[in-house]
Write a structure and sequence with these properties.
The protein has about 800 residues and is α+β, with helices and mostly antiparallel strands. It contains 20 helices and 32 strands. The longest helix is centred in the middle third of the chain and has 38 residues. The protein is elongated. It starts with 8 loop residues before the first strand and ends in a 12-residue tail after the last strand.
């Protein structure tokens, strides 16, 4: 005979009226009721709790139904059983009642029941159709319902809030759908659910596990879950993620307005619905902000709206220039700027969860708010806001403006931790904005200094047609020390110079100005290119030693530079060049072929001890010269060689306008985000007509002086320049006489008709004449003084074979080159 403890299942029959009509021996062993006791009794007498919906209390022929139901043992105890009902039909389809199977649901030991019941985690079990089968006390407190109130009810009926998601943009499934999916697939799930309970101003985050409950045959008979409130940890993690994102997203550009926009865009929509950043006009200009925002007369504080970003699409268009805004005296924004403290405004008093017993939590605990916060201000509701945090924008003790973080579309109220997050975001942005302001001020100063030192207008000369371009680095980089120059020299020659100082900022601009002045000074001495670079190298070495820190002064950085110095002579069409670590020029002949620059570049300036070499080329008339700095051809995408090849491809020798060609080159080679200055100097060579040059070899005999004067007068008559005869005759007489008396043969007299009349006397001596003032009774010493008084300029230039004394006279009308010049 079977033992009652071994019986785990029983069977019975219920007629259409819900009365037991059939009983089994296993039913007696399982529940203690005999057939005599059970047959004829309503089946509900065997239940220890109200029957769930669908249980066969009366006639009906519904579908199969399974539920976990507590049954009443004859001795008064309760037996948990999994009850399954199956409708019965006769041959004609008439309802005969139900066959009912009962399977014991073994209960855990009492200590286990107590452990689950007293667990701080919310625990629950539901049938496959998501009807409540059991919940523990913690779950009851969470949902504010007792176990008796929810047993047999559908999950959606008790918790309709779980059918929606607080953040639909994350594409998360509602929690109820997750339960149903586990019941359907039998696959467990782990998730974090964020939702806002009914009557609460705050969103809660729950860590939850859902798993299927299977019977001995592996069939899913129920779904269970557990969860705990991890709101504090979740929101702390979200704030850390936002601060991390802010660290990456704020301060990427050294631009005040751009940084303000980064703050606004970083905060929306993850933190708030809209952000405004208002800055003082002085900050936008790179100047020092005002000492106090409040005026003595109590007038409104004038700022400019540097950024405004909203989760709505109406402000996502390209930002325009900052618009003026005025904050009234006594307004929240002004009070925050004056006191230096943030203010939180809430439209309504925040609740602590309404009917949901989530506990007070840190979010709604007034003890964690700083004094004076939050401020309940129903006036912001008229603006369509549920809350606003106003934070003064301060950096390094200076007030830069004010930031407002607003919520409108989301009803959850700000918390004390939200205030901390807003202040952290503002502090990061304030430092970045102040850095951008300081950089803007230094950049503006450096640009002003640099432009004042650069060539403002190309000098008038006839040897070369010249065009130039200079572009400083983009807003994300400091100003460099690139420069170029066009220097008219004696004998109708012209020097073309381009250089680049190491470093950026004010130091580089100041160093560039020193070098440009030094090059012009050395060019006036008419030194050959290699000698000029040698003197310039010595100067850089001395300047570098002067920059060493002394006393409390800080070092200004390294000092070095590269330089290319070239000279073009339109009379001989000779082009001489020397380089100190600088890229050589590109030379394109009139037929489009490239003329290689065969010079050997020397070391950069400031190295010392190494020579510089000059190279000389004879150029066809109409040759195109391109001098440039490495910022034009070098970038992150290409090296110097690749950039030089691209420059050569873009240069079109057939283009008539050099100005247009400059624009074409700059547009083609410079990236949108430049990291270095770029300078370009284009020149097209002209040749002086041989008929505009006359020279004569002079014998070293004083009797040759009258013949030299006659030669000069005849040449002036041939050129139609008789009005210059008197001065020219005197100048030739003095210069030729000095060359015969103090110089060495061979001696040569040359006249050049250019935009001015140039007279040159050359000899093989290296001794240079000096201008001096003769005393009243001195018989000599007045020659050079007369030359200097009667001409517009004079000087000496040394050559490989001696020296040349020259002077120039301005002509009454410009004397153009003949028509055969390009």
């Amino acid at each position: 005979m079977a033992d009652e403890r071994d019986v785990r299942a029983a069977a019975l029959v219920v007629d259409p009226d819900g009365v037991v009509s059939g009983w089994s021996e296993s039913g007696r062993l399982l529940l203690g009721w005999t057939a005599e006791d059970a047959v004829g009794r309503p089946v509900t007498d065997l239940l220890a709790a109200p029957p769930p919906p669908g249980f066969p209390e009366s006639s009906g022929s519904g579908p199969d139904h399974t539920a976990l139901i507590p049954l009443r043992h004859r001795d008064g105890s309760t037996v948990d059983a999994l009850v399954s009902t199956h409708p019965l039909f006769d041959a004609d389809g008439g309802a005969l009642g139900h066959a009912v199977t009962v399977q014991r649901w073994d209960r855990r030991p009492v200590i286990a029941d107590l452990a689950f019941e007293q667990s701080p985690f919310a625990l629950g079990a539901y049938d496959p159709e998501l009807r409540f089968l059991w919940i523990n006390a913690s779950s009851g407190r969470v949902i504010a319902h007792s176990e008796d109130q929810v047993l047999g009810k559908h999950y959606r009926e008790v918790l309709p809030e779980f059918d929606r998601e607080l953040f639909p943009e994350r594409d998360d499934k509602p929690y109820t759908d997750q339960l149903a999916e586990v019941a359907r697939t039998g696959e467990p799930a782990r998730l974090i659910t964020v939702f806002r309970p009914l009557g609460s101003n705050y969103a809660n985050a729950w860590a939850t596990s859902i798993w299927p409950v299977r019977d001995a045959e592996g069939r899913v008979r129920a779904v269970a879950n557990w969860g705990f409130d991890m709101s504090a940890e979740y929101w702390a993690r979200q704030r850390l993620l936002m601060l991390n994102e802010a660290s990456r997203g704020i301060g990427r550009t050294l631009d005040v307005i751009g940084t303000a926009q980064e703050l606004a865009m970083t905060s929306v929509p993850g933190f708030v619905d809209s952000v405004t950043v208002d800055l003082f006009d002085e900050v936008l200009r790179g100047e020092e902000p005002p000492l106090s925002p409040a005026s003595a007369s109590g007038e409104a504080v004038a700022l400019r709206r540097a950024a405004h970003h909203s989760a709505k699409g109406d402000t996502d268009r390209a930002p325009g220039p900052p618009t003026p805004v005025r904050h009234a005296p006594g307004s929240v924004a002004v009070r925050c700027m004056v006191t230096g403290r943030s203010t939180v405004q809430l439209a309504v008093e925040p609740g602590e969860g309404g009917e949901w017993a989530f506990g007070p939590g840190l979010a709604a605990d007034p003890a964690h708010w700083p004094p004076g916060n939050p401020l309940i201000d129903d006036s912001i509701a008229a603006e369509g806001l549920t809350g606003r945090i106003t934070v003064p924008l301060r950096a390094r003790g200076a007030l830069l403006g004010v930031v407002a973080f607003s919520r409108s579309d989301r009803p959850e109220a700000f918390t004390a931790d939200d205030l901390i997050l807003a202040e952290e975001l503002t502090a990061k942005a304030a430092v970045a904005i102040d850095n951008a302001r300081r950089y803007s001020r230094e950049r503006t100063t450096a640009l002003t200094l640099q432009r004042s030192l650069l060539l403002q207008q190309l000098p008038s000369q006839e040897a070369l047609e010249v065009a130039s371009r200079y572009l400083p680095a983009g807003t994300g980089a400091e100003v460099g020390g690139d420069w170029f120059d066009v220097i008219p020299l004696s004998g109708a020659r012209v020097a073309l110079v381009v250089g680049d100082v190491v470093g950026h900022g004010l130091h580089a601009s100041a160093s560039m100005g020193r070098l440009r002045t030094a090059v012009r000074t050395l060019a006036d001495v008419d030194l050959p290119p290699d000698e000029l670079l040698t003197h310039l190298d010595d100067l850089v070495i001395h300047l570098a030693s002067d920059l060493q820190p002394a006393g409390h002064f800080q070092p200004t950085g390294e000092f070095g530079a590269t330089c290319l110095y070239t000279v073009y002579d339109p009379v001989s069409r000779r082009f001489t060049m020397a380089s100190a670590g600088h890229p050589l020029p590109l030379i394109i002949s009139p037929d489009g072929t490239r003329t290689p620059a065969s010079a050997q570049p020397g070391p950069p300036l400031g190295i010392g001890g190494l020579p510089f070499e000059s190279a000389e080329l004879e150029l066809p008339e109409g040759s195109l010269l391109a001098l440039y700095t490495d910022g034009l051809v070098e970038s992150r995408e290409r090296d110097v060689d690749e950039g030089g090849t691209e420059l050569l491809r873009v240069l079109n020798h057939a283009v008539t306008s050099l100005e247009g060609l400059c624009d074409t080159v700059m547009d083609a080679l410079l990236p949108e985000r430049r990291t270095d200055d770029a300078a370009l100097l284009l020149a097209r060579t002209h040749a002086l007509d041989p008929q505009h040059v006359a020279d004569w070899d002079v014998e070293p005999d004083p009797e040759q002086v009258p013949r030299a004067r006659k030669f000069a007068l005849e040449q002036l008559a041939a050129w139609g320049l008789e009005e210059a005869s008197f001065v020219t005759e005197l100048v030739v007489s003095e210069l030729v006489t000095n060359a015969i008396r103090y110089g060495e043969p061979p001696i040569m007299l040359r006249l050049i008709r250019d935009s001015s009349l140039i007279c040159e006397v050359s000899d093989a001596s290296n001794t240079a004449p000096h201008l001096r003032r003769a005393r009243a009774f001195d018989e000599g010493g007045r020659g050079l003084l007369l030359v200097a008084q009667l001409t517009q300029g004079w000087g000496t230039r040394h050559t490989t074979y001696g020296k040349t004394i020259w002077c120039a006279q301005s002509l009454s009308e410009p004397q153009p080159f003949p028509d055969n010049r390009l």
